[in-house]
## 1
Amino acid sequence: MSDGSGYLYDPNRDPDEAARQWLAYFASGDAQPGKDAEFRAWLEASSWHSEAYARAERLWQAIPEVDGVEDVLNPARSRDRLRRPAGAFEERPRWDGLLRRGAAAAAAAVLVIAVSAVITLRQPSSNTIAFATAIGEIRSVALPDGSQIVLGGDSAVEARFTREVRELKLLRGEAYFDVVRDGWRTFAVAAGDVRVEVLGTEFEVSILPDAIAVAVASGRVGISDARHRVELAPGERALAHRGAVPIEVGAFDPQDEFAWREGRLMFSNERLADAVAELNRYSTKPIVLAQPELGDIRITTSLRTNQINQMLAGLSATKPVRVAEGPDRILVESR
Amino acid sequence: MGDQAGKGEAAFAKRAHAGALMNEASAERAAPRHGAGSDAPRHGEPHLVARRLERSSFMAGLFRRHWGELVGRLRKVYGPGPPEPEEIAQAAFEQIARMPDLERIENPRAFLFRVAVNLAINAGRRFARARKHLDHARRTANQDDLKDWDPETVFIGKQELGAVRRAMDRLPEKQKMILYRSRIKGESYAEIRRDTGWSETDISRTLTRALAALQAAVDDNGTDSN
């Protein structure tokens, strides 16, 4: 039934009827781009056709303008009348009436089963998809709604799509979201206690050692944690500190911030602790800071993800640190 | 009464910020309209200033008179959201405020509800391709007076709407229900089928029949004094 052929246009109908069938076809919510050529050919075959379609759509557009349309078409009332056995056979019970009532009961049972099936389908477990990258891997993922995620190294995202929402969870690492607007269906990303909600935009979420960072490339993005809420415009980056202090908002350089998508890491006056967290998503051996206070050293540098060792060598030349590579880790200690 | 209207306007201003989120959707629809504005007076001319004042007082009046009712109707049809009824209403006002030719709106209250319904169900998405092809067909056929039929801005007269209403009231319940679910609630056939068990072919046929009955009412309007 998915190709919609069951309700397509019959060439022998008059133009108005054909126009209504086309309109009903587009209203089905199941119109395939593949049928467009057929529709176009029909439209262009005669100005009667395009006139008829314009007329049909004019009426379609006007329907909500009918005074009190929601009451005239009152669905609650309609549903009652449809579901309840009609009064006619209540008054004159007959065999077929009883049979029909039996059928109605059966139909009701089917309905209950159908409803519970729908509810089951909405359970998170059955429609959650998860993506993860290994250390050093950068991966682009297409979501069912056409949105794209670029996952940084050692990062993981879980996505759950329902009719009402697109719910994602950044479990670790960082991800860049290019969100296609889908009507009013919210696209929400949770990371720790931070929640980001958008309709259609591009932004990045990173889990840092002691904050969650959200940087916006385009569109507007609403961000909230347990206690605060801010709205970001393009070019703004928010840092949320687990609800402890208000969310900080500042500007950022998109060239630096999003460079990792091309396998380049850029740090501009960044805390070493945050830089190391990011480097560790691409480093074959984990980098460890021997003294926590080293984390506050500020660094500015740019490197490819496969040049981490060279970058660390440079670090020991310009900062008061020594870098020692062991068999299973790289230790950065003060000297 | 005046106080209530004042509160409403404050809410309108407050929501303008939140409304920025929706601009992308409605801006798309407010995109260049064929034939409109080609002979528009230049910026700063007195009659243009007058016209702008007219526009803003038109919008203020529209807002004062209809905000509350619109939100109420939207809540009744779509529930508390999301999107919240206020958000939809806000987006509808914004879209109307961007229209080039407000004076063509004969029946602002009805038009407002139409715009809000279309936004709520994202009607544009379903019909965008059809609209594009129609546009193309009309243009190649050299029917260049496109503005007169552009379904977004063509209005059905009050009398015709009355005829549609009477015909709608007489529709069988099943046709009413399908029309409501499809046109007002924006449900797909698959969704309607899931709730009712009717096949998609049946739904399509029923909807087509309902539309035929309503169209007949419009066509007969000239002669029908019902």
Note: Chain B touches chain A through 79 residues (CB under 8 Å).
## 2
Amino acid sequence: MKDLKHLIYFESLLESANNELVQQAQKDGKLAMGYTCFHIPEVLLNVDNCFSVRLRAPNTGSIDIATYYMSNYTCEYARALTERAIEGGYQFLDAMIGVDACSMMNRAMEHFELLQVNSKPKFFVTHTDMPYKITDYTLESYIKQMRLRVLDRMTEVYGVDTSDAAIRKAVAEHNEVCRIISEIAEMRKADNPVITGYEFHILCLVTYTCPKYLIIDKLRETLEELKQRKPDAKPQFRARVAIVGSEIDDPGLTKLIEGCGALIVSDRFCFGSTPGREVIELNDEEDALTQICRHYMEVAECARYISDEKVKQRRETSDRLAREYKADGIIYEQMKYCDYWGFERTLVSHVMAEEYGWPVLSIDRLYITAGSGQLRTRVQAFVESLEIKRIHKEEGKN
Amino acid sequence: MAKTPKFPNPSFWKYKDHMDIAAQVDNLKEIYGICADMAKEADWPAFGKHLLQGWKDFGNRVADEYNTFKGYSKDEQLDIILNGEKHLGRLYKSGSMATVRREWRGIRDTAYDFYEWGRMWYMLLSTFSRDLIPAANGMLYYRWYVSYFCCHSFMDKNTIGQRGRALRMSHELIYPIFRYVAENLVFLSKCDEKNGNCTELSKKVVLIDEMTMGQIMAGFPDLLGIPYQLLPVFLVSEIDQLTCVPYIDAVESYGLPSDTCPVPSSECGAIVIDALPHLGACFISSSMPCDGSTMASSYMGRRFPNLKTFHLCFPVRYLDEETVQCGAEDIKACIKFIEETTGSHWNWDAYFSAMKRFNQETAYELQKWEVNKTDYPQILGPCYELYRKWNYEMDGGTDPRIMKTSEKVNKLLLEAYRNKDEAWVGKMRHRAIVWSCPAHYYANFSNWAANCWGINVLVEMESLNFTKQLATDDKEEAMRDLARLYERMVMRRHTNGGYQNVVDELWRQCEAWNVNFIIMYQNVACKNMATLQGVLDEQGRERGMHMIWVEHDLMDPRTVSRRTMRDKVSNYMQTVMQEEPVDPSLVDFEDDVTW
């Protein structure tokens, strides 16, 4: 296929958390609100003169200092963020919106405070409590947390307008991005899609890490380009896979998987499009904050949600996506040392295989994986097994 | 004045079992087959040789002990006869599961110790005889069951080196824990579908996630709350550290990464190999204390899909008072769930009575702390530490018999304080605190540290929990208090809700207890604590604390053995402190398989 016009530019934006669009927005007088977790409604960090930056630590090398602080048996994403923060890589942030959803990420945010990694006089770190299940009282608590610990802090420290009108404006801008990404995502359902999993991952990552008002034009242009794009006459991929699991902000991983012949057609992971790029439908009867919180609780696919209906929802979503996007198999992945996804991946990779009948590859991986030969071998073997299954199916064997 | 109801509810014992005799016969045949195979495959000549060697070793040891004793001066001999032996490492033998003999504690204390040994046996036998057949039959189904036979060894281990009032207090404290274990073992066996199959009682059983506090059951005196995995997994591993190894292996073979905490891993492994009895009207799962435990509940759901489950989830940022109501509402929802599932009704009177007892027990606990903060700490060692944890977490005022124990122990405590007793006679060198996830029950660590190096653990992190008197008249506030209590459950109180709860809190406690030694347990799989190791280390050094980092992996001794754990302390004491041990025989000994 012909290269996408802006792909290299998008890739360059992902080379640094403090990329040129972030710098541009700050020159425009905007405030950078850092966050890491889906549980924080991204849209709330885009009100008034603020913009959200979902933190990554691209080009991570040594994480020795963070390992000293946080030990070597802990999530590398959390450690990479801490290391980058100590190096001064997040000095550009005006606030860090933390969640106490998983212990290691929470500790990473606490190190931002403890080690005073940001010297801006008004910089603050806030911590929020997250629900484990959806009930009326957990929703109420969630709303309260977002109001008191996020929005009110932004108003107190920076005078940000967090009124209902301001939130609705942010939702409108957010939805526009979501519509574009969703439309592009739909293209992956085609038998011979015009976009690769890697390209889609890059587009998604850009929407999470750049100010939306500065990126939206290029996203629109890319959408139009894709509509005209001609797929390769003969697909280069040997199998189609859905990915389900924990945080992936490293496009090197998607590149590695696709390099083994597996086209990624569905991305059910943090920093992916499901969840995260669903349009938020607001009505006028209820305040926007309540509706946003409810939306995030309902679409969340985080393994931390413990209640039976959410456990079921996660399995159903994986199955639905894999079917809708015509995947041949599912890759369940987890960031190494992640407790939530460690337990979830183990159990559900059995469930998906035994109850839903999906071929499953179950992997744990490091934060930066591009150079992992071991992982490459496992994906190659999985692709081969999918091919064999397809051949057997075509031949009428089991 | 209303009569205090009997505990446990006497009706629980009276329900009839519906044992499937044919299934028991089949199981016996299977057991017989296994035994026959073992007998067939056994190397009998080697076994005979081993037996003979054991007798030779016994003879040599007796001769050695006799000669050693003979070599002492008359005064030393008299001291040993009256006050007990000094070299406790002699009790251990490489490769042996039991100690070579019981400890000689001096005439008076040895006699008392034997009395307690007999009292324990009497309690165990009388409890088991209340429904003997299913209780004994449990051994034929569950391998963990057999490990409870080591409970006397556990008692001996936890009181090693103790004398006088300290010994008495330890025995008083450990006894109710074993009574609780024995009673619940019988109930588990009685209700287990594979065993006693007592359906009437099973309908009254509310299974509770083992790390979840039991106070909620105080409002349901007609129901039986059992911490489900406590007996098959957690508590038994304290008694016999090797029990959970097959569970961990099973779940890791299933695919679970080995970096997860062994507690939820073992729970899930027990599910994988079907080591949990089948019973109960419903299950209360929980998000506590940490991420791994949260996830273990989905394994329960997979194994027992028909067991109705309520997920009790509390806010993590518990210091934020804005979150308390959410916790209180979850408790109300849980109560409603239990009512709907069992047909029972929440009884405020029963709840308030239990919480009044719990408040009184908390007051007793604070008294213990006050004494231990002085220059004459009195109540030390694993029995006290375990009791505190059990009373706070499992009993929670529900058992009226515990009041007597608390009263008796605190009477002894004050007597000992007035008398300026030494908790470990002649072994009080350093004042220490234990921090992070403790492993000292598996390793009998605080006892060993005192006996070997004179390091006296005055308090451990897990004891320092919620001490507020709970509301016992205002119903709404009572729910909020219960939420506050649950949010501050053992471990969670410190490891959750922000670093201040474990870092700043440590320095505050060091000052309050006047300690300068910190036994810093480092569970290699505890992410909540591991992610603060650098900060703890830095701030500890700034404060001039002696921080001894002791790596461990809780109930998986293959990662870090007890001997390796002890070596960390011994190395520190020898190289940094340049000290000689109080008891050199305890510096290095092998106890890899010892109960």
Note: The radius of gyration of chain B is 24 Å.
## 3
Amino acid sequence: MTLSLGIATMLGGFLFPFVIRMAWGKMVDSWGPIGGWIAAAFIVGTVWCINHGIATPMITQSGAAWVDQGLAAGVGVWVASVLVGGNVRKSLPTISASVCGGILAGVILSLFL
Amino acid sequence: MKFFRSLAGYTIAGLLVMSVWDGLGAYGIFGGYLAAIIIIGPLWFMNHYVNLTGNEDANGFVDMGLAIGVAGLMRDTLMKGTDALVGSIPTISLVILGAVLGGIVAAAFEKSMAKEAERDANAPEPGMTEKELSRLVSEE
């Protein structure tokens, strides 16, 4: 990976949680649950285009194991929520459930894909 | 019980995104949008709006994206070997670094916006201009 691609990859990781924190909650506040669907389409969908979808995506995959922008969302949204006052210790069980869930999903997928 | 509740929600998220999205992603940008609507829409509703994953407002928020990211890495590690995971370490580190920076900047901007909203809410009458508000504040 060249320096340019590395910087782009880092900024791709920056972009996704940033847009989620800035807009997702407000869309749900403004439009109710349907706001979450609009956010799913136009935040996840549009940011996916630049990070993964276009021919030379912002997140360069250096290896064969797929690094999804979801990882950036998980990390970045947690960091932001902690900085505005979220409790770290009480979120640890949820983090472990999330990581275990990801591992379990990976194991199940490897059974049939 | 709550752990298994969360586990179920996060597992289903990882399972669906890392299989169906790849199928739809083959149709390019529009496949990606369709995938975002039909996968992320209902999964967000189940995991975060209905709150199957059990995040509480006072705690750090664990987005289902974390499970999705781990699921992608785990799937390819099991199917292509640990070399695949080792090769992806540069991307993983850069993405996490960028995400941490994104979280820090987003939190700082949220605080700044909250301060402005508070200032506007405390205005003696609605519809005052910024200039009038600033003058009032400086007089106090």
Note: Chain B has a mean pLDDT of 92.
